[in-house]
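step=encode ok
step=design start
structure_in=
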């Protein structure tokens, strides 16, 4: 009961002090460690201080061009080197950093000037009520500096990061004299609470990383439940010789850790992102702390469990030794790989580090809905038929198919006259697409919204039985070349919106290499989140497995509908350079030029039944009398369970009608049935 009364009294006192100073609490309280065993809370108030991170890129230009009295005054007080840097307007990051450093130093000097404010100088500035209230008090010393910072914020609200209303800690100096830091520290009254329980502490002086003061404690059990239960209440601290303020703050760490989404730093594994809190102004402790964490992670693996969403019980797994990427001064990303196969389908994963691990790792790392189903990585539309134009999404794509088509054939009748006869043609076809290196470019850092892929060599071939003639030339094509893709995300959510820009240069020939053409192509595919939705699942409750948050979790029991609509626009330009057996493809012109547009609609009816409809209209510049060609294909795909995580295999049925490049056959009316195996991850980085 006594403890509860003490807590209520402390919180009430804190609120009273806050109300008296009209302050909005926004300082920081970070847990730090000296040797991973001795802990303390570093409390930084200093909100009146100006940092380089507070200055936005628009401020220097506004100060140089502004004709208001305040801008003219500040401009006249800037150092000549600062003015020269502003006028030079160098876009290089190093130059901008130097400019911000010098400008921050100049402004700090102005904020320490008691004469910074004058009514004429701020005549056109609208002041906040709290600024006007403090101005009316005509403060001195540290509070005057705090007032000047508030005035600067009001004058340039769009160009300077807005400061907290919590005044900074008094440095012991004012117009009346000087006090030492020990005296100032003796004016601080603060408490540390864990779930409302008061923790015995000692107030110490600033540390080498810039904390205004330290709250030391000796009971290590305080940390066994993590930091969520800790809160600092600063009941009072000196703003100047006679004025006090206060605030409360939650305790956190300067290095943040989390299981990140799969990204360019760890494209096929499980990335653990470790980085200094991006919001820190002075991350020197966090920078140093990263080295400690990296050393620990290299020597210790977490306990790992996985749980397939169609099973009730978690399963243990082990990890391979990780590789890591990133700049260890601010961020690094260990990329973990499971030593054993993950469950097929969708599963959850959990990492647990031991209790003696660094405090940043003493939490549950949980990642839900990881997809490990090979049929989920199978490209939309298995049988596009556009040799040399199929999307490069897997390293290996091998298929066999049986084709049955009907076309008009010319035969002699009994009188020796040519007559058109409708005949069915049956053929077997081997379909192959191989890309030894899907991408030779390094993938970008996490958070980037632009990806670039360079595939230096791909081979795309379709070889049919029987002799090559003008009617089956398109089924006997071998294409090899290179492809470069730029993928730009503008809504990088779970179901993203993005653009695909595909640039291709290739050489195409028939099976016997008797005719060949080279061509360059460009294709644009805009993908919109509204029409780009994967399968959804209805679910029911199950007992809690790995999820640390709730008592129940979900298990999929019935599959909904997934869909994707992809419009496309493209152009092809090229020339036939070898012609030893001319067929219909090149009767009109050796100069190939065409544009096309169309769309693909894919419906995922279940995980093992997919329907794809594609329609493209070609406008042919090489054949004025046969300008338009339409191509339609409908494919039903039945993915089978995968052999490995990197492979998929499917049966498919398709119906196609119309013509497609190189337009070597008459418009077809064809039914196909086939089987296809695809493989990902041989050499290159998957897209």
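sequence_out=
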């Amino acid at each position: 009961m006594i403890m509860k009364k003490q807590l209520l009294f402390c919180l009430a006192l804190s609120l009273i002090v806050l109300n008296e100073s009209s302050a909005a609490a926004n300082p920081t309280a970070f847990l730090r460690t000296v040797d991973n065993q001795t802990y303390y809370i570093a409390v930084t108030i200093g909100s009146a201080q100006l940092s380089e991170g507070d200055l936005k890129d628009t401020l220097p230009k506004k100060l140089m061009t502004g004709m208001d009295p305040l801008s003219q005054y500040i401009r006249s007080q800037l150092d000549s080197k600062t003015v020269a840097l502003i006028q030079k307007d160098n876009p290089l990051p190093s130059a901008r950093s130097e400019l911000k450093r010098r400008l921050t130093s100049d402004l700090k000097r102005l904020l320490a000037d008691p004469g910074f404010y004058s009514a004429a100088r701020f005549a056109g500035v609208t002041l906040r009520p709290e600024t006007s209230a403090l101005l009316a008090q005509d403060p001195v010393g540290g509070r005057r500096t705090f007032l000047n910072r508030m005035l600067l914020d009001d004058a340039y609200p769009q160009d300077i990061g807005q400061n907290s209303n919590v005044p900074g800690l008094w440095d012991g100096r004012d117009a009346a004299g000087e006090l030492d830091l020990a005296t100032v520290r003796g004016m601080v009254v603060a408490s540390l609470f864990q779930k409302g329980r008061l923790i015995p502490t000692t107030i110490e002086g600033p540390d080498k990383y810039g904390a205004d003061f330290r709250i030391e404690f000796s009971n290590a059990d305080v940390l066994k439940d993590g930091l969520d239960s800790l809160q600092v209440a600063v009941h009072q601290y000196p703003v100047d010789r006679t004025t006090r303020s206060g605030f409360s703050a939650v305790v956190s760490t300067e290095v943040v850790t989390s299981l990140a989404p799969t990204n360019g730093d760890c494209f096929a594994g499980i990335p653990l992102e470790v980085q200094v809190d991006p919001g820190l102004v002075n991350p020197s402790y966090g920078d140093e702390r990263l080295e400690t964490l990296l050393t620990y992670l290299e020597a210790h693996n977490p306990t790992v469990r996985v749980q397939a969403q169609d099973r009730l019980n978690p399963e243990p797994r082990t990890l391979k030794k990780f590789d890591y990427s990133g700049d260890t001064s601010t961020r690094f990303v260990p990329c973990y790989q499971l030593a054993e196969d993950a469950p097929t389908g969708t599963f959850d994963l959990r990492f647990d580090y031991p209790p003696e691990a660094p405090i940043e790792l003493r939490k549950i790392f949980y990642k839900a809905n990881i997809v490990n189903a090979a049929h989920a990585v199978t490209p939309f539309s298995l049988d596009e038929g556009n040799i040399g134009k199929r999307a490069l999404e897997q390293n290996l794509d091998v298929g066999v198919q049986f084709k049955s088509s009907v076309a008009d054939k010319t035969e002699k009748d009994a009188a020796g006259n040519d007559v058109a006869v409708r005949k069915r043609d049956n053929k077997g076809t081997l379909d192959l697409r191989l890309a030894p290196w899907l991408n030779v470019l390094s993938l970008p850092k996490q958070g980037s919204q632009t990806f670039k892929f360079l595939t230096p060599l791909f081979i795309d071939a379709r070889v049919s039985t029987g002799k090559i003639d003008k009617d089956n030339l398109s089924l006997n094509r071998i294409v090899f070349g290179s492809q470069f893709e730029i993928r730009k995300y503008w809504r990088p959510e779970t179901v993203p919106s993005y653009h695909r820009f595909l640039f291709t240069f290739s050489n195409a020939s028939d099976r016997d290499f008797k005719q060949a053409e080279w061509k360059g192509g460009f294709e644009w595919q805009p993908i919109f989140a509204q029409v780009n939705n994967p399968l959804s699942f209805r679910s029911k409750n199950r007992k809690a497995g790995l999820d640390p948050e709730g008592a129940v979790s979900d298990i999929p029991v019935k599959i909904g509908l997934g869909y994707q609509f992809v419009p496309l626009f493209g152009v092809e330009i090229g020339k036939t350079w070898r012609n030893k057996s001319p067929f219909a493809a090149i009767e009109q012109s050796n100069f190939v030029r065409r544009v096309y547009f169309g769309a693909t609609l894919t419906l995922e009816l279940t995980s093992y039944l997919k329907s794809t409809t594609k329609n493209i209209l070609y406008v042919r510049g090489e054949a004025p009398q046969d300008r338009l060609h339409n191509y339609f294909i409908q494919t039903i795909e039945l993915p089978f369970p995968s052999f490995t995580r990197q492979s998929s295999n499917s049966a498919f049925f398709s119906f196609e009608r119309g013509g497609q490049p190189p337009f070597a056959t008459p418009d077809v009316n064809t039914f196909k049935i086939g089987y296809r195996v695809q493989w990902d991850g041989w050499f290159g980085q998957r897209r």
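step=design ok
step=annotate ok -> The CA atoms of residues 410 and 420 lie 5 Å apart.
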